[in-house]
Amino acid sequence: QLVESGGGSVQPGGSLRLSCTASGLALEYHAVGWFRQAPGKDREGVACITTSDDRTEYLHSVKGRFAISRDRAENTVYLQMSSLEFEDTAVYYCAATEFHPPRILSRLCRAPAEFESWGQGTQVTVSS
């Protein structure tokens, strides 16, 4: 089970940190992704990380603004979001899937259907 927290409302330029904590699932050899879905739009991968060696991938529009990281002891993956923009408003979900060759992280991060475990989502709203 994955549980997200940390969403909320923030002004443009503000920051938020999302947390995704796994229970009953040890994130040892997994890819964990943060996905988002805005009203009327498809779900898209924002950032992904491999839990075995901390490789990361980012959606182009969030590079330099968002950072994904992992705390092994807490079995938690974080998404630090800075310089938030109106377009970042969405429900954010974390998801996990086992990661072994020949899976490629960059492809996985664009394919939410490849992830089996999902959290319930947390709302992020950027408004003035």
Number of strands: 11
Number of helices: 1
Share of residues in strands? over 45%
Q: How would you characterize the largest beta sheet?
A: 7 strands, mixed
Secondary-structure content class: mainly beta
* Arithmetic mean of pLDDT: 96
Q: How far from one another are the termini?
A: 34 Å
Low-pLDDT windows of residues: none
Our Rg estimate from Cα atoms comes to: 13 Å
Overall shape: globular
Oligomer state equals single chain
Element-by-element helix/strand order = EEEEEEEEEHEE
Helix content: under 10%
Summarize the structure in words:
With 128 residues, this protein is mainly beta. 3% of the residues lie in helices and 47% in strands. Strand 5 (44-50) and strand 6 form a beta hairpin. The chain is globular. The chain starts with a strand and ends with a strand. The model has no long low-confidence stretch (mean pLDDT 96).
